[in-house]
Each structure stands twice: as structure tokens, then as C-alpha cells.
Specification:
Order of helices and strands: HHHHHHHHEHEEHEEHHEEH
Oligomer: single chain
Distance between the termini: 48 Å
Number of helices: 13
Shape: rod-shaped
Largest sheet: 7 strands, mixed
Strand content: 5-15%
Number of domains: 3
Radius of gyration: 60 Å
Structural class: alpha+beta
Length: 516
């Protein structure tokens, strides 16, 4: 069973993870953007500046040709200036470029690292080419200082100048290519940075919206998880107000669902207890009223019965007793007897003694009762089918009260079949021997569904001259014995009463007897 708190924690943990993912994405993209900007600011831009400084405009060949036409004295004054004009500066810029490219390559990655490696290779090539050029340029200046370029050695001097000029063209081309590569790379990186910035903004907005949706979903799920508490609160208020039939919907397997199930069980139990309490109060009131009415009626009835007997004797002593008077006196006696039977039934219901529980065999009780009622049932053309299970466990009961219960049900069956019929008496073990069940069925006219729900109510009867206490007394006795009774009936096919009692095994009975 997963707790509601755990579910709520997990939903908000998912929402928090979503927002953390968005924040992490933004931080990562900003870190990449900052690295790209650092590569631009500390790598590509300084390298572009250095490459621009390497673009030499005043080469040695031009100075050598200028010095060639000078007179010897002017040439000797000009050549030291030409020697010291730029070689050292160019070499320093190449080394500076290599340091800048190496430092930028440390923080770079991917294409930037590869490009900076290519820049380093280009600068190494420039350094080597510049060393060759420096050597050849110095040799050319040395030749000029020795007087070359005039007379017979002019052709050799021109060839040397052409070779140095070729080196100058190669150096110039390499520097131009380096500048173009740096400018192109800077343009590409700026374009990539702009595109990355746009994508980062768009993705951040999208991911933020998704994270917001996850957060809203988490809040909705939490609200849904907590909604049963509100329903449960309303149910508690309804039960407190007296509505014990209120049910709370319980779904899932968390503690709120368990609480809702327990609440429903509690409400149902309270409803049953209230119904039982009301029934007990009603029965108590009925008992008090019955006892009072019976007390007030019995003495006058006894007096009327006694006087009717005396009157009958007086009429019988006459020489010619009138037949009509004899019939009236007999009718009075019969009605007095019937009213006495009714008062006895009221008293029995109102003053039902506590059962004296002892171990008895229901088969013996039923068998003896059926033998006793045999002539009566036979006279009413009622056949009896017995199906008493052998080896039936005993029950703790008051034999007299149970005999009265079975007698009442059997006579009700007989009265339900005025033209005759069949009564079935069945006993069986139930609940793996933990209980004993008695089934009394008949083939009478049955009980209508509207009456079936009220047959156990006191004073409710379907008979014209019934008191309505027979089945109420039966239910009261069965429940006093810890049993249950139910009725199933179909109009036109008959009625079946099923009584169930807790069983007592013989060995348990022996143990109880030995302990006492």
C-alpha cells in the first residue's frame, strides 16, 4: 500500500525535477555560450590582430633593389637600416600568436580545438618559412654590402633576388590565408553564437512551459489524491447529523481508501445498532403495553368464562333447554377461550424468560415434535417429509422455547395449506460443522413481496384473526439463542423458513463438563 504522502511527494518531486532540468539546461547552454565567447575574445580576435601585424608591406627585395642603384657610400649607410627594420618584430608576433592559440586551445573543444590546432600548424609553418626567408634576406643584404648586383655578377644577384621574392610571396600568401581562416572562423562562431542564443531562448521557453505543465499536473494529482478527504469529511458530517446510510466512495489502496472502507463499515454498524436499538425499544414498549392490557383483560375474561359456564349449567338444568341459548353460551365460551389464548400469547411475548441453555440435539426436538403433531397434520391432509441429517452436532438451547418456535412455524405452515399439502423438515451441518441449519418449508400459497419484509414486525399479521406476535416471538427466541432466521417465499409455490444456530461439538461439551 503506497501512502498518500508518498504519492504527493513523488508528484512534486517530478515537478521539481522538471524545473531542475530546465535550470540545468539553461546553465549548460550559458556555460557553452560563455566558453564560445571566451574563445572569441581570448583566441580568435587576438590571433586576427596578430595576423594583421604579420602582413608585411615593406619586404627585403624592394629595399635591396633600392640599395642596388645607390653609390657605394650611400649603400653602406642604407643597408644597416634595412637589416634591422622588421625581422625581429615578425618573429615575435609569430611566437605571440602561437602562445595565444595554445592557450585558447586548452579551454576549446570540438571544432574550435581542431581549428586552433590548425592555426598552430600554420604558425609553425610561418615560423619555419620566415626562418628561411630571414636567412636568404640576410644573405642578399650581405651580397649587396659586398658590392654584388653590378657588373658581371648582376645575373647571379638577380636570381638571388627572384628567389627571395618567391619566399616573400609565399609568406604573404600564408599570412593572407591565415587571416581569411581566422575571419571566417570568427564569422562562423558569431553566427553559431547567435543561433545558439536563439535556440537556447526558444528551448528554455518550451522546457519552462513543459515544466509548468508538469507542475500543474502535480498540483492536480495532489488535489485528486486529497479530494477523498473532503468527501470523507462530508460523510462524517452527514453521519454526525444522523444520516447513517451515507456511504463514502473508496477507490485505491492507500490509507485514505482504507479509512473510507472503515468509515463505511462503521456507519453500517451504527445503522444496524440503531435499528436494533429501535427494535428493542419498540419491543420493550410493546411488552409493557401487552402486559398491561393482558393484566386488565384476564380477570374480566375469567369472570366472563366462569359466568358463561354457570349459565350453561343453568340452561342445561331446564326441562327443555332452548337450543339458541345453548348455542349463544357455547359461542361466548369459545370466544372467551380464544381471547384467553391471545392474552397468553401476549404475555409470553412480553415476559419471555431468559433461555436456560443446555446441550440438545435438534433432531430429537424436531422428531418428538413431529410425532406429537402427526395426527393433527394428518387430519389436515398435510404430508411430512423428514430429512434429518445423521450425526448432527448439538446446540446450546432452551428446549421448551425452541419447541415453541418450531411448533409455531409448523402450525403456520398447516394454516397456509387449508386444502392440504407438504411440509419439508430438513437439518444439515453448515460452515464446516460450526453451525446447524433447520429448514422448514411448505407448499402453501406463499407470502406477497410487500408483506415479506414486515412479517417479523410485532402485531403485523396476514391472517384475519392473527395477533401478529408469532413470528416476532420466533425471531426473538432465535436471536436470544445466538442464531438467525430468514424467510424465502414465492406466491403460489410456498414458503421456506431457514434457522441457523451455532453448533457445539461433543468433545467441547465434554471438556466443559470436565472443567466444571
Amino acid at each position: 500500500m503506497r501512502r498518500v504522502a508518498t504519492k504527493i511527494f513523488l508528484t512534486f518531486a517530478v515537478a521539481l525535477a522538471a524545473f531542475a532540468a530546465v535550470a540545468g539546461f539553461g546553465v549548460a547552454r550559458l556555460h557553452d555560450l560563455r566558453r564560445d565567447l571566451r574563445t572569441l575574445s581570448s583566441g580568435y580576435i587576438p590571433l586576427t590582430r596578430i595576423a594583421a601585424q604579420l602582413d608585411v608591406k615593406d619586404w627585403v627585395t624592394a629595399r635591396a633593389l633600392e640599395a642596388r642603384v645607390l653609390d657605394p657610400a650611400a649603400r653602406r649607410a642604407y643597408l644597416p637600416v634595412a637589416r634591422a627594420h622588421f625581422p625581429a618584430l615578425v618573429r615575435e608576433k609569430i611566437e605571440e600568436g602561437k602562445r595565444v592559440a595554445a592557450g585558447a586551445r586548452i579551454d576549446a573543444s570540438g571544432d574550435d580545438a581542431r581549428f586552433l590546432g590548425d592555426v598552430l600548424a600554420r604558425l609553425d609553418g610561418l615560423a619555419a618559412r620566415w626562418a628561411d626567408y630571414d636567412r636568404e634576406a640576410r644573405a642578399l643584404l650581405d651580397a649587396l654590402e659586398a658590392g654584388a648586383g653590378m657588373g658581371p655578377g648582376a645575373a647571379a644577384f638577380d636570381a638571388r633576388v627572384a628567389a627571395v621574392r618567391q619566399l616573400e610571396k609565399g609568406l604573404s600568401l600564408d599570412v593572407k590565408l591565415l587571416q581569411v581562416a581566422l575571419e571566417t572562423q570568427i564569422a562562423d562562431r558569431v553566427h553559431d553564437a547567435e543561433r545558439t542564443e536563439g535556440n537556447t531562448v526558444a528551448l528554455t521557453v518550451i522546457y519552462s512551459l513543459l515544466a509548468l505543465a508538469v507542475g500543474v499536473g502535480a498540483a492536480a494529482i495532489s488535489q485528486r489524491l486529497l479530494a477523498p478527504i473532503q468527501t470523507l469529511t462530508e460523510g462524517v458530517k452527514a453521519v454526525a447529523a444522523g444520516d447513517l446510510t451515507r456511504k463514502v466512495e473508496a477507490r485505491g489502496r492507500d490509507e485514505i481508501s482504507v479509512l473510507a472502507h472503515e468509515f463505511n463499515a462503521m456507519a453500517a454498524s451504527l445503522d444496524r445498532q440503531r435499528a436494533e436499538l429501535l427494535r428493542a425499544e419498540r419491543l420493550a414498549a410493546v411488552g409493557r403495553i401487552s402486559a398491561q392490557i393482558t393484566h386488565e383483560i384476564r380477570n374480566p375474561l375469567n369472570a366472563i368464562g366462569l359466568n358463561a359456564e354457570l349459565l350453561a349449567e343453568e340452561i342445561a338444568a331446564l326441562p327443555a333447554p332452548p337450543a339458541e341459548a345453548t348455542g349463544l353460551v357455547s359461542a361466548i365460551s369459545r370466544e372467551v377461550d380464544r381471547l384467553n389464548a391471545v392474552t397468553e400469547e401476549y404475555l409470553r411475548f412480553a415476559r419471555l424468560p431468559r433461555p436456560q441453555l443446555e446441550r440438545h440435539d435438534l433432531n430429537e426436538i424436531l422428531g418428538g415434535l413431529l410425532d406429537f403433531l402427526g395426527p393433527e397434520l394428518a387430519a389436515a391432509r398435510v404430508d411430512v417429509h423428514r430429512a434429518l441429517a445423521p450425526g448432527l452436532p448439538g446446540v446450546r438451547c432452551d428446549e421448551g422455547q425452541l419447541r415453541a418456535v418450531f411448533l409455531n412455524l409448523l402450525r403456520n405452515s398447516r394454516e397456509a395449506m387449508p386444502g392440504g399439502g407438504t411440509v419439508r423438515v430438513v437439518t444439515r451441518r453448515v460452515d464446516s460443522g460450526a453451525g446447524v441449519e433447520v429448514e422448514l418449508g411448505d407448499t402453501g400459497g406463499g407470502i406477497p413481496p410487500g408483506d415479506l419484509t414486515r412479517i417479523f414486525e410485532p402485531f403485523y399479521s396476514t391472517k384475519e384473526r392473527g395477533t401478529g406476535l408469532g413470528l416476532a416471538f420466533t425471531q426473538q427466541v432465535v436471536e436470544e439463542h445466538g442464531g438467525t432466521i430468514r424467510c424465502e417465499s414465492t406466491v403460489g409455490r410456498g414458503t421456506v423458513f431457514t434457522l441457523r444456530f451455532p453448533a457445539i461439538e461433543d468433545r467441547v461439551e465434554h471438556e466443559v463438563g470436565a472443567a466444571t
